User: What shape does this take?
Amino acid sequence: MLFLFFFILALAVVALGLEWLIEQPGSLTLEFAGWHMEASIPVAVAGLLLLIATVIVVWAIVVALIRLPRRMAGGSRERRRERGLDVISQGLVAVGAGDLARARKAAALAERLLPGEPLTQMLNAQAAQLSGDHQAAAKAFHKMTLKPETKLLGLRGLHIEAKRRQDAEAAHHFAKAAHEIAPLPWAGSAVLEHHAAGGDWEKARAAVEANLAAKAIDAATAQNLRAVIETAMAMEKEREHPHDALRLARQALKRRPGFPPAAATAARVLIHHGDRKQALKLIETVWATKPHPDLAEVYFEALPDESNSQRVTRIEKLARLAPDAPESRHILAQAALSARDFTKAREALAPLVAAGQHPTAHTCLLMAEIEDAQNGPSGPVREWLARGSRAPRDPAWIADGVVSKHWLPISPVSGKLDAFEWKIPPHSAQHLTEEGQPNIPAAFLARQPASLEAPASGAGGAAQ
Assistant: This one.
């Protein structure tokens, strides 16, 4: 409304000005190079305005003609870019769908349309990966590293290719280079796993701190990783540097309360140096919240000089700390069986084999041992062994589909730190053997030769 008011006001002013100009007497005379022109003032002003308008129009036409080739080229480039981006989009969709022929065709066309586009190199790399041409993929990723905006993407691709061909040093080089540019989670994790796989726990611990400072991991994850690293260090130092081993194991327990590997390591160190009472107390403290077969094994180790009846009494005390846990009933049944107290052994396992229950392989094996020790080879023994072969598997240390009788700090398959979990293994899980496991640090294997023994039938051996 305000604009309309000012527009009408401006028209009124112009009209008044024209009326004033027309009413003015006089004329305008122009003589130039023999030319003589005479016109009234309104006509002269109108001619001047017409001349100015003509010059402006001619100038605009000249400029448009000059710029026409550039505009035509720019439009062609824009259309070429639009088409190239459309081809790249179709190619990436083809890669995602696993359509190798379309992906290759799109990559070749994108290379012609947009050879310098980062997405073109990405499509080339993914199409090469899809076809199994890892050399071409590595070449495309290398081109990405030459440009600042795609360098991190190229380094990650080269890291993946190096891991695929099992070149640990090259993979570490690319991950470290990426981590120095930006604190990316994948790069920090790769650097950490490289140091862990090599058994360089001090550098692994420094990598954890660097990842935490860069906020690549949260505080809880960092605490868990610190505990794993300190437990691995304690296990390596257990024999030659027991004081350091005990300090590290206790520190790991503070970071990760109830962590069975750390508790078992600390208890073993105490036992080997004559502090049996402290070892038993430590295991009992952890057992109350997290009973575990590894702790039961060390607990038995702490009672070598006691009679069978004394051992049963101690085990009963331990079992009462977690009375409903299957681990408590298993360890009590084993102790009673060693003391040939078959009644107590059966009572310990009774809730696990009662009607409606599904006893695990280890429970069935214990029942078979009780029957055999009490009555000799008989039908019940064979029956329990048969049930055990069909029974649910017992929990075990498992990582990446591989079962280990004892805990390990890293996965032997992927090299991931803190990969082993205590859980029921799937039927497809493989038992871990020493052969063909390059991801486990040699120094760790030297300190823990028994940790690579294959479990007994089912998963029962892992629960003993």
User: Anything to note?
Assistant: The chain has a mean pLDDT of 83. The CA atoms of residues 86 and 110 lie 9 Å apart. Residues 309-381 form one domain.
